[in-house]
Amino acid sequence: MPTATITCPTCRTSLQLSVLPTPYPQPYPQPLSPVYTTPPAPLMQPAPPPASVPLAASTRPPSGTRPPYQSRFGAPHPLPQPPSKPSRIRRLSPQATLLALGVLLLLAAGVTFLAVNWDSLPVPAQAGIIATLAALALAGSVPASRRTLAGTAEALAILGSGLLTVDLYGARALGLIPPIDGFTYSAIVFGSLAVLTLLMTRLAPKVVTYGVTTVIAGQLPLPLILIDRTSLPIILAALLAQVVLTLILTAKGTPIVRRTGAITAAVVLGGILVTGMTRTLVGFIDTYGVNPPTQFLKTVATAAVVCLAAATGIAILRKRPLPTAIPSGLGEAVCAAAAAFAVATTLPTAGRWLTTALATALVITELIVARRTGKLALILHTATITVAVMDIAICLALDDIRQLGYLAVIVAVLSVLAALRKVIDPVAAAAVASLGAQLAIILFTADMYIDRWPAAITLAVVGAAGTSIACRHIGRPLERTLITTATCAAALAEITAILISADTATDVVLTITAAPLVAYGMHPARRPALLIAALFLIIANTTFVLGAGTTTLEWYTVPPAIILLAVGTLAWRNKPSWLFLGPGLLIGLAPSTLIANTDDSWLRVTLVVAAALLILLIGTRLSLQSPFLIGAAALAKIGIWQFLEVAPLIPRWITLATAGAILLTTGATYERRLTQTKQAARWVASLR
């Protein structure tokens, strides 16, 4: 225990203080009565041996000194302990043992008597015996419950209720009751049982069987009375009112009664929803089946009751939630799905577009309130999904391809709206929008709603739109999705065009597809797209010329050459000229140069010479190698060909003289010509 030595500033007396820990705050300690002690000796001197003096003498202060004051702190008070409950051992009392044995012997005697003499008794006596046993069992449960014989009371209550039910049905079977139809008599039986058990709950409130039997038996009379006397909507509405009344009345009972009432109400409410959904589905099948619609108003009334029951169930769940073991929101989702199913199967009877309009309205509402959470959002999600799925299922069941096409268009538009509202990811929205539009076009074409020609053009436009949008999202995840869907649209458009006309429609589709690829390929990281666009344009030009049936070569070569020159100039103008100008110049000039002769057409020769001279001058002026060499080669070919055409007309001596003059001139100026040739070769090699 820690101690401390403190010297009093007045009397110079050393005091020893002890510090004691306390488990909880104590009130300010009060000093005890002062005790006078002899001051201790100085620390440096040895303590004298203790003197054998009485206690009173040792505590008396010396003369002439002031008695020191010493404070003593009281010991900490212990915490109060909770009172311990005495253990109670349940022992079977002699009274309970005697009662149980007596009941057992009486029952054994009664069973033996009935087994031996039952057939010899008249029918009224048999019914009276069973009624007496039921009354004894019911009456015996009252004192048993009051004497804390809970098990005996419950057994007697179950026995009495069962015997009463058997007696009532047996009396009717044996002819003691006037003939009544089965449903009405069952309603009377269960109603009587419910009334009797309700009375017994007043006499024996601790018996659980009476409360549970009252709740369960009280649910049966109403549907048994109405089942063959009125229509289904009225029965369902009456049962719904009974559910509400059951919950209100059982809320004032014991916990087991409240639990039984909740379970019974849930079962009856589920039966209402399932029965109403089945009736609306049967009404829909009856409308579009072999039979004409005959009970449309009853179907509508049933759907209305189902919606009212679902709303009532949701309201009840707000007041009395489901147990924690059941997932939260499951009850609300089931109610919303049932109401949506009933409405979705009822609306097509009045009009095919009503279900689609309802699904669209629900989706728009969900997009507007997308940031809300909780049970309301869950109910809206469930209703939207149910109506949309039912709409698609109905269209598939009826083979309504056109309606499915409209649904695809609506989905595409709503996906764009969802992306603008930032409800879903733009990548998913772009994929759904593009694929939905393509699916709608294909479905409309399959249904012969639109022809193949506009279908191919529309698909190509959809793909071109995707490529155009991708130009603004290069390097982002959205770009890959847009290019993929655009490729899919272009492929579908080309397939459709081939089915129409491989010559006429293909060039239009490829031209529409290639136009945005040029803009897409202008980005430095997407240059290969320009080559794809050029390929599409060349194929389009070729198919167009083939479809036109022309035989002029330039229709096949000049447009592709112009395309390649434009693409090369836009994308690779800083590269060597053979890369961005060579392919176009070769395709455009080489074929015409090879077939140009005066026997065929002087116009072609003239145009080829003019084009070759032009590109030769451009190559010389801009120091470009490919235009210079291609132009020079074309002019050389034309010149040589022209000389070969007139060579047979020239006298032989002129040819020999010309050859000799050339050789003499070359030999006389060989060194200078060789130097000029090397200079010319170096100049050509230095061109870009």
From TrEMBL:
Comp. bias (Pro residues): 31-52
InterPro entries: SCO7613_C
Keywords: Membrane, Transmembrane, Transmembrane helix
Source superkingdom: Bacteria
Record-annotated membrane-spanning stretches: 98-118, 124-144, 156-177, 183-200, 207-226, 232-251, 263-284, 296-317, 329-347, 353-369, 376-398, 404-420, 427-446, 452-470, 530-549, 555-572, 579-596, 602-619, 626-644, 650-670
Chain positions covered by the region annotation Disordered: 31-89
NCBIfam families: SCO7613_CTERM (NF047321)
UniProt protein name: Putative membrane protein DUF2157
